[in-house]
Design a protein that fits this description.
It is a single chain. The protein is α/β, with parallel strands linked by helices. It has a single domain, classed as 3-Layer(aba) Sandwich (Rossmann fold), CATH 3.40.50.150. Helices cover 31% and strands 26% of the residues. It is built from 8 helices and 9 strands. A 7-stranded mixed beta sheet has the order 5-4-3-6-7-9-8, sandwiched between helices. A two-stranded antiparallel sheet has the order 1-2. The longest helix is centred in the C-terminal third of the chain and has 13 residues. It is globular. 37% of the residues are buried.
Protein backbone atom coordinates (compact mmCIF):
# COMPACT_ATOMS: atom_id res chain seq x y z
CA UNK A 1 0.00 0.00 0.00
CA UNK A 2 1.52 3.32 -1.09
CA UNK A 3 0.86 6.19 1.30
CA UNK A 4 1.28 9.78 0.16
CA UNK A 5 2.75 11.94 2.94
CA UNK A 6 3.45 15.08 0.91
CA UNK A 7 6.37 14.98 -1.49
CA UNK A 8 7.11 11.43 -0.44
CA UNK A 9 5.35 8.13 -1.05
CA UNK A 10 6.01 5.47 1.57
CA UNK A 11 5.02 1.82 1.68
CA UNK A 12 2.73 0.48 4.39
CA UNK A 13 2.94 -3.25 5.03
CA UNK A 14 -0.08 -5.43 5.68
CA UNK A 15 0.96 -5.67 9.33
CA UNK A 16 1.28 -1.89 9.60
CA UNK A 17 -2.17 -1.37 8.12
CA UNK A 18 -3.68 -4.05 10.35
CA UNK A 19 -2.25 -2.29 13.40
CA UNK A 20 -3.91 0.96 12.37
CA UNK A 21 -7.24 -0.79 11.80
CA UNK A 22 -7.05 -2.44 15.22
CA UNK A 23 -6.63 0.94 16.92
CA UNK A 24 -9.87 2.35 15.51
CA UNK A 25 -13.56 1.52 15.70
CA UNK A 26 -14.08 1.47 11.94
CA UNK A 27 -12.55 2.32 8.57
CA UNK A 28 -14.01 4.91 6.19
CA UNK A 29 -12.85 4.60 2.57
CA UNK A 30 -13.18 7.77 0.47
CA UNK A 31 -12.90 6.53 -3.10
CA UNK A 32 -11.64 9.05 -5.66
CA UNK A 33 -10.74 11.46 -2.87
CA UNK A 34 -9.36 14.09 -5.29
CA UNK A 35 -7.51 16.72 -3.29
CA UNK A 36 -8.41 14.89 -0.09
CA UNK A 37 -10.41 17.58 1.67
CA UNK A 38 -13.46 15.42 2.37
CA UNK A 39 -11.31 12.67 3.89
CA UNK A 40 -9.52 15.25 6.04
CA UNK A 41 -12.86 16.68 7.19
CA UNK A 42 -14.15 13.22 8.17
CA UNK A 43 -10.95 12.28 9.99
CA UNK A 44 -10.90 15.54 11.93
CA UNK A 45 -14.50 15.18 13.10
CA UNK A 46 -14.41 11.42 13.72
CA UNK A 47 -11.13 10.60 15.50
CA UNK A 48 -12.40 7.15 16.47
CA UNK A 49 -12.31 5.89 12.87
CA UNK A 50 -9.47 5.36 10.43
CA UNK A 51 -10.04 7.28 7.20
CA UNK A 52 -8.44 6.16 3.94
CA UNK A 53 -8.50 8.64 1.07
CA UNK A 54 -7.84 6.74 -2.17
CA UNK A 55 -6.96 8.29 -5.50
CA UNK A 56 -4.98 7.39 -8.62
CA UNK A 57 -3.58 10.94 -8.97
CA UNK A 58 -1.05 11.39 -6.19
CA UNK A 59 -0.03 14.93 -7.10
CA UNK A 60 -3.46 16.30 -6.14
CA UNK A 61 -3.00 14.82 -2.66
CA UNK A 62 0.44 16.17 -1.82
CA UNK A 63 -0.54 19.39 -0.08
CA UNK A 64 -3.18 18.06 2.29
CA UNK A 65 -1.32 14.76 2.75
CA UNK A 66 1.66 16.69 4.09
CA UNK A 67 -0.65 18.45 6.55
CA UNK A 68 -2.25 15.17 7.64
CA UNK A 69 1.16 13.55 8.23
CA UNK A 70 2.39 16.44 10.38
CA UNK A 71 2.31 16.57 14.17
CA UNK A 72 -1.21 17.06 15.62
CA UNK A 73 -0.30 20.58 16.78
CA UNK A 74 0.24 21.49 13.12
CA UNK A 75 -2.95 19.91 11.82
CA UNK A 76 -1.74 16.34 11.59
CA UNK A 77 -4.29 13.53 11.87
CA UNK A 78 -2.98 10.12 12.93
CA UNK A 79 -6.26 8.50 11.84
CA UNK A 80 -5.90 9.56 8.19
CA UNK A 81 -4.11 7.83 5.32
CA UNK A 82 -3.88 9.05 1.75
CA UNK A 83 -3.29 6.09 -0.53
CA UNK A 84 -2.05 6.31 -4.10
CA UNK A 85 -4.05 3.70 -6.01
CA UNK A 86 -6.79 3.43 -8.57
CA UNK A 87 -10.08 1.79 -7.72
CA UNK A 88 -9.47 -0.62 -10.61
CA UNK A 89 -6.48 -2.05 -8.70
CA UNK A 90 -7.10 -1.75 -4.98
CA UNK A 91 -4.15 -2.39 -2.67
CA UNK A 92 -3.96 -6.00 -1.54
CA UNK A 93 -3.57 -4.84 2.06
CA UNK A 94 -6.87 -2.96 2.08
CA UNK A 95 -9.66 -4.56 4.12
CA UNK A 96 -12.02 -3.98 7.02
CA UNK A 97 -13.91 -1.11 5.42
CA UNK A 98 -17.00 -0.21 7.45
CA UNK A 99 -18.10 2.79 5.38
CA UNK A 100 -17.59 3.76 1.73
CA UNK A 101 -17.89 7.30 0.37
CA UNK A 102 -17.91 7.98 -3.38
CA UNK A 103 -18.56 11.68 -3.78
CA UNK A 104 -19.18 13.34 -7.15
CA UNK A 105 -17.48 10.54 -9.13
CA UNK A 106 -16.24 11.20 -12.67
CA UNK A 107 -14.69 9.22 -15.47
CA UNK A 108 -14.38 5.49 -14.93
CA UNK A 109 -15.49 5.85 -11.31
CA UNK A 110 -18.78 7.41 -12.39
CA UNK A 111 -19.35 4.61 -14.91
CA UNK A 112 -18.66 2.09 -12.19
CA UNK A 113 -21.11 3.62 -9.73
CA UNK A 114 -23.81 3.60 -12.41
CA UNK A 115 -23.32 -0.14 -12.79
CA UNK A 116 -21.40 -0.14 -16.08
CA UNK A 117 -18.39 -1.80 -14.43
CA UNK A 118 -19.57 -4.65 -12.18
CA UNK A 119 -15.94 -5.62 -11.53
CA UNK A 120 -15.34 -2.30 -9.77
CA UNK A 121 -18.38 -2.71 -7.56
CA UNK A 122 -17.40 -6.28 -6.68
CA UNK A 123 -13.82 -5.27 -5.89
CA UNK A 124 -14.99 -2.56 -3.50
CA UNK A 125 -17.46 -4.93 -1.88
CA UNK A 126 -14.65 -7.44 -1.34
CA UNK A 127 -12.76 -5.04 0.98
CA UNK A 128 -15.87 -4.19 3.03
CA UNK A 129 -17.12 -5.86 6.18
CA UNK A 130 -20.71 -7.18 6.24
CA UNK A 131 -23.29 -4.38 6.38
CA UNK A 132 -20.77 -1.64 5.60
CA UNK A 133 -22.58 1.63 4.89
CA UNK A 134 -22.17 3.51 1.63
CA UNK A 135 -22.81 7.05 0.43
CA UNK A 136 -22.65 7.87 -3.27
CA UNK A 137 -23.38 11.42 -4.45
CA UNK A 138 -24.02 12.07 -8.13
CA UNK A 139 -23.54 15.42 -9.83
CA UNK A 140 -26.72 15.57 -11.93
CA UNK A 141 -25.28 18.27 -14.17
CA UNK A 142 -23.26 15.48 -15.78
CA UNK A 143 -26.51 14.80 -17.68
CA UNK A 144 -27.14 18.47 -18.63
CA UNK A 145 -25.95 17.89 -21.33
CA UNK A 146 -24.89 14.29 -20.87
CA UNK A 147 -21.15 13.61 -20.74
CA UNK A 148 -19.73 10.44 -22.35
CA UNK A 149 -19.16 8.83 -18.94
CA UNK A 150 -22.90 8.41 -18.29
CA UNK A 151 -23.29 6.33 -21.46
CA UNK A 152 -26.89 5.33 -22.04
CA UNK A 153 -27.89 5.84 -18.40
CA UNK A 154 -30.63 8.50 -18.17
CA UNK A 155 -30.41 11.15 -15.47
CA UNK A 156 -31.32 9.36 -12.23
CA UNK A 157 -34.08 10.50 -9.91
CA UNK A 158 -34.93 9.09 -6.48
CA UNK A 159 -37.62 6.89 -8.00
CA UNK A 160 -35.62 5.73 -11.04
CA UNK A 161 -32.59 4.96 -8.86
CA UNK A 162 -34.73 2.75 -6.66
CA UNK A 163 -36.36 1.12 -9.66
CA UNK A 164 -33.49 0.76 -12.16
CA UNK A 165 -30.15 1.23 -10.41
CA UNK A 166 -30.92 -0.67 -7.21
CA UNK A 167 -31.11 -4.10 -8.91
CA UNK A 168 -27.83 -3.46 -10.73
CA UNK A 169 -26.10 -2.55 -7.47
CA UNK A 170 -27.72 -5.44 -5.60
CA UNK A 171 -26.28 -7.93 -8.06
CA UNK A 172 -22.80 -6.87 -6.93
CA UNK A 173 -23.52 -6.81 -3.20
CA UNK A 174 -24.65 -3.20 -2.80
CA UNK A 175 -28.15 -2.75 -1.37
CA UNK A 176 -29.63 0.69 -2.04
CA UNK A 177 -31.70 1.81 0.92
CA UNK A 178 -32.49 5.41 0.09
CA UNK A 179 -32.10 7.87 -2.77
CA UNK A 180 -32.81 11.56 -2.33
CA UNK A 181 -31.78 15.01 -3.46
CA UNK A 182 -29.43 16.99 -1.24
CA UNK A 183 -30.21 20.56 -0.24
CA UNK A 184 -27.58 23.32 -0.24
CA UNK A 185 -26.66 22.76 3.40
CA UNK A 186 -26.18 19.02 2.89
CA UNK A 187 -24.04 19.61 -0.20
CA UNK A 188 -21.85 22.05 1.72
CA UNK A 189 -21.46 19.50 4.52
CA UNK A 190 -19.74 17.11 2.08
CA UNK A 191 -16.72 19.42 2.40
CA UNK A 192 -15.28 18.75 -1.05
CA UNK A 193 -13.52 21.25 -3.28
CA UNK A 194 -15.44 19.86 -6.25
CA UNK A 195 -18.89 20.66 -4.82
CA UNK A 196 -17.75 24.14 -3.75
CA UNK A 197 -16.32 24.82 -7.20
CA UNK A 198 -19.51 23.65 -8.89
CA UNK A 199 -21.63 25.68 -6.47
CA UNK A 200 -19.76 28.84 -7.37
CA UNK A 201 -20.33 28.36 -11.10
CA UNK A 202 -24.14 27.97 -11.12
CA UNK A 203 -27.23 29.28 -9.33
CA UNK A 204 -28.15 25.82 -8.06
CA UNK A 205 -26.22 22.57 -7.77
CA UNK A 206 -28.33 19.43 -8.09
CA UNK A 207 -26.97 16.34 -6.36
CA UNK A 208 -28.57 12.94 -5.84
CA UNK A 209 -27.41 10.93 -2.82
CA UNK A 210 -27.57 7.15 -2.76
CA UNK A 211 -27.30 5.45 0.65
CA UNK A 212 -27.33 1.83 1.65
CA UNK A 213 -25.20 -1.10 2.77
CA UNK A 214 -22.56 -3.27 1.15
CA UNK A 215 -22.57 -7.02 1.79
CA UNK A 216 -25.94 -7.06 3.60
CA UNK A 217 -26.35 -9.94 6.00
CA UNK A 218 -30.14 -10.04 6.10
CA UNK A 219 -32.03 -11.40 3.14
CA UNK A 220 -35.01 -9.39 1.95
Amino acid sequence: MRRVTGKQVVDITAAGYDELVARHQGVVLDVGTGDGKHAYHVARHRPDVLVVGLDAAKDNLRRIAAKAAAKPAKGGLPNLLYVWAGVERLPAELHGITEVHVLMPWGSLLRGMLGSDPTMLRALAAVCVPDAEFLITLNLHAWRPAVPEVGTHPEPTPSSASRDLAPVLAAQGWRLGRADYLDAEEIDALATSWTRRLNSSRDQLDVLALRGVVNPTDVE
